[in-house]
């Protein structure tokens, strides 16, 4: 009952919105239906009114939006003269100007809006809405024309970009809505995602039916479906995981009372998102099965065509239907020309008599060389990264022990002093900064016992290789300063980071997490 209530609620509440979205298409079909066959006794009945409508809309978009210019009737007339002459060979003389004016009046609907009527189930009455393609206004004592927003949206909607995934686009919109706490709007987005998944499932079934009916058309449909529907599965699954994580965080905050969210909306959003993920996984499984079915159907089709060509039964039936046995010659003649007498070359007898077999078989000589050891590229890269990170860590730890507090700008200066300015062109340096920024606090004594990140694993191995206890007890924290950006080289910009660590002296620890120090330089390490 709950599902039926939800379905009927969606039918009633969403009907008006869907009809409003359809209204922008209504003028086109009205114009297409009322063709030019009625003008001048059908003299221009061969002109396609739909093509003309799109041409005029594109002309207005070019002038209004791209060139930021007003369109006058004279500009429209000049465009139509060239268009009709080039596309249909219609001369400007005779009825040409009248035709251009007639088309313009039809596009403007003689200055009146197109009236679009539909039934509103919520209001329980028929509703009329109005839509225009071209509107006009006076500017500088001149009448100019422009496209309405409905006309522009209609023109853009009719050109679908096939290379993009609707599910990916909707999920990016869903992520934005979740971050903005618009959970109710995100619910509508997920329902659209479920609808798109359902459409792909139906399209998959149509490809299977087409493969059974016409294997050549089916293969073309399968290639098109694979290129547009299946190419984005990996990206879509990543976005599903991201949105699921965002919803879980929002739900956790709402249940703990840390944020004032509509808990019911988040529950519905989580339910619909799980349903979308499950249906998307089912679609992936179905598409995998589709590839297997397609391979079987194509293989059977190839085998069937091969068997029909070389079938003796089919050849016999065709020969009987033609009442002509001449084709039997191709089968009988090779049998009549067979050479049944076998002979042996006498010259081979001498070779047989002179042949002396080896008294003992020779064994295969096995080499005694050692097996060559191969070094793979990922091993080389891992060794390089570990070695470079050790050098970066050594400089960082030494500066923390001596200065206690400094920023990333100073640390970069120290790296340049140690390794020249080419360090800013080294990719391992940027990887080191990224891994270092994963945590805001590091304690080396704790890292020796347990490592939570990739960098902490390298730190532990580095401390073990040193074995001198030079950095025992060292701890430091990272404070990110996003408003202060550093430009590295010509193309990289990073946010500044302040590193802070207590300093140990003969009198004990004299620097705190605030970065105040009595020795080893100023707070900035300058």
Residue share in β-strands: 5-15%
The largest sheet is: 4 strands, antiparallel
The succession of helices and strands, N to C, reads HHHHHEEEEHHHHHHHHHHEHHEHHEEEE
Number of strands: 10
Helical run tally: 19
* Helix-and-strand structural type: alpha+beta
Low-pLDDT windows of residues: 508-526
What is the 3D form? flat
Rg, nearest Å: 39 Å
Task: Enumerate the strands of the largest sheet in spatial order, edge to edge or round the barrel.
Answer: 5-8-7-6
- Please tell me the overall pLDDT: 77
The N- to C-terminal Cα distance equals: 73 Å
What fraction, in percent, of the residue positions are helical?
55-70%
3D architecture notes:
- With 526 residues, the protein is of the alpha+beta class.
- A four-stranded antiparallel beta sheet has the order 5-8-7-6.
- The longest helix has 47 residues.
- The C terminus is likely disordered.
């Amino acid at each position: 009952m709950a599902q039926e209530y939800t379905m009927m609620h969606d039918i009633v509440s969403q009907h008006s919105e869907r009809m409003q979205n359809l209204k922008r298409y209504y003028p086109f079909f009205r114009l297409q239906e009322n063709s030019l066959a009625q003008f001048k006794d059908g003299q221009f009945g061969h002109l396609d009114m739909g093509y003309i409508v799109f041409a005029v809309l594109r002309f207005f978009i070019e002038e209004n939006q791209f060139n930021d210019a007003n369109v006058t009737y004279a500009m429209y007339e000049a465009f139509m003269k060239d268009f009709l002459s080039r596309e249909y060979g219609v001369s400007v003389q005779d009825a040409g100007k009248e035709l251009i004016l007639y088309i313009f009046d039809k596009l403007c609907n003689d200055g009146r809006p197109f009236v679009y009527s539909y039934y509103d189930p919520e209001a329980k009455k028929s509703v009329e809405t109005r839509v225009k393609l071209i509107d006009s206004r006076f500017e500088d004592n001149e009448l100019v024309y422009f496209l309405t927003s409905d006309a522009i949206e209609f023109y853009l909607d009719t050109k679908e970009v096939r290379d993009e995934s609707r599910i990916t686009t909707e999920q990016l919109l869903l992520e934005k809505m979740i971050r903005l706490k618009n959970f109710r709007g995100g619910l509508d987005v997920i329902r659209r995602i479920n609808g798109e998944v359902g459409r792909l499932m139906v399209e998959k079934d149509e490809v299977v039916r087409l493969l059974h009916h016409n294997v050549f058309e089916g293969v073309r449909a399968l290639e098109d479906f694979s290129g547009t529907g299946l190419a984005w599965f990996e990206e879509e699954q990543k976005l599903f995981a991201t949105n699921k994580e965002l919803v879980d965080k929002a739900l956790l905050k709402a249940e703990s009372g840390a944020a004032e969210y509509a808990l019911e909306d988040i529950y519905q959003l989580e339910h619909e998102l799980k349903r979308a993920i499950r249906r998307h996984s089912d679609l992936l499984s179905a598409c995998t099965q589709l590839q297997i079915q397609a391979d079987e159907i194509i293989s059977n089709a190839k085998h069937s065509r091969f068997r029909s060509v070389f079938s003796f039964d089919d050849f016999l039936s065709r020969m009987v239907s033609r009442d002509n046995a001449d084709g039997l010659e191709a089968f009988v003649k090779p049998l009549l020309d067979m050479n049944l007498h076998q002979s042996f070359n006498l010259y081979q007898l001498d070779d047989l008599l002179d042949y002396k077999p080896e008294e003992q078989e020779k064994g295969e000589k096995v080499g005694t060389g050692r097996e060559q050891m191969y070094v793979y590229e990922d091993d080389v890269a891992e060794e390089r990264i570990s070695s470079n990170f050790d050098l970066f860590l050594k400089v960082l730890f030494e500066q923390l022990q001596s200065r206690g507090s400094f920023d990333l700008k100073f640390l970069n200066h120290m790296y340049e002093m140690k390794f020249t300015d080419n360090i800013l062109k080294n990719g391992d340096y940027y990887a080191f900064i990224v891994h270092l920024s994963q945590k805001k606090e590091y304690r080396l004594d704790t890292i020796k016992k347990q490592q939570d990140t990739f960098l902490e694993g390298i730190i532990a191995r580095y401390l073990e290789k040193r074995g001198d206890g030079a950095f025992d007890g060292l701890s430091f924290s990272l404070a990110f300063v996003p408003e202060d950006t550093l430009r590295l080289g010509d193309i990289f910009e990073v946010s500044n980071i302040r590193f802070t660590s207590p300093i140990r002296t003969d009198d004990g620890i004299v620097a705190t997490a605030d970065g105040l120090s009595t020795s080893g330089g100023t707070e900035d390490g300058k």
